[in-house]
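Q: What would this chain look like folded?
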Amino acid sequence: MNISSRPFVAWTIWLLGAVFSVLGSTSVHAQISCTPSMSDLVFGTVDPLSSLTNATATLTFNCTNSNNNSRAATLCFSIGEPGGAQTNPRRLSSGANFLNFQLYRDSTYSTVWGSTFFGSNTPLQVNVTVPGKSSVSVPGSATMYGRVLAGQTSAVPGAYTRIYQSGDTALRINQNNNNTAPGSCGNTVGGAFPFDVSATVIKSCTVTAGAASDIQIGPASGVPVDAVNSSGTNSIGVTCSGGTAYFIGLKPSNNNTAGLGAMSGTGANTDKVPYQLRSVSASGPIWGNTATATSVGNGVAGIGTGVAQSVPVFAVAPSANFTPDNYSDIVTVTVNY
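A: My prediction, written as structure tokens:
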């Protein structure tokens, strides 16, 4: 069976060659061809507690025309998703963690860059005209706009990537035998333009204190001079990126690292009213300022969730036996992470 098939195949090929020779037709490969390339999209550092992050990459291509006559073509640059993953939004990954992002065809970030083969978003279309038998290629370029979407406060810090391989990108060429581009995508394979997308989510924390967190020791009407261990409480707000360990330190204006402050009176009053900062309760652990980025010290520890966490603070004045007056002090809140 194999022996008899060889003369048949050889005879068929010889006949086809003879037909082409008689007709004198132009080679079917005389056409526009293009070589595309995409630079990597690098977002750099991303603060999950701030607004969205933008970056750009550049698509370049060079086209030649092996036909004797000038030709026009519509080039369609498709970007799918590795493994057929979701495209709205796209996702960068860092182990089991994800970071949402999107690729756009325009500087207003309104038109998603899609594919003719996958999903509902369409590819980038570019019309080109290439002179016939040109010894110099016709270059072109386009900007790809990337955006890490806002509102991802719970994103876990780390290095995130997305690798678009040759099978995830494609150039298709649709050409005419004149100088008018078809304006639609074709089926001729024009190559691929693989690229990588990367971002580094950093640790981030913010603290909310100020007047809303002021502590009133004792009743607002005043503390009797014979009162002991008068206390007050309020809370501070801490927001840290997801999974970020943080340690809070409190420092009175006298810089005491053990949270032992002194309130000052007004005018010529030189009395100082001692007070102690504490956590958990009015009789809880002292709250000072020896915390660091890696150790809680005599502070308070927490783990960020990407949303504000309310942390109670207690202040206790052991004695009120001082000149009647309004006393106050300023405490500095430091979040170490």
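Residues 1-29 have pLDDT under 50 and may be disordered.
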